[in-house]
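Session log. Operator J.P. requested a structure for one protein chain; no other inputs attached. Running the standard single-chain path with token output.
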Amino acid sequence: MRTLYFTWQVCRDLALAEVDGVLNAAGNALQRWMGDHPDREAQSLYLQQPYHRALWDAWQTKGTR
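Structure written below.
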């Protein structure tokens, strides 16, 4: 997730076309993990990780536009 996070940041900061693809890959990976771990407490702890939270929030915001 750290690699996806830093790749997403670079793509975002440089306004590269790949930014959406990287964010979608991260969102899909996070969603897959959440599906494999349905315990709400485990999900909450997982999303407290700074990289995870930033990607999750950005991915959800992007999906609501």
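Operator note: The chain has a mean pLDDT of 92.
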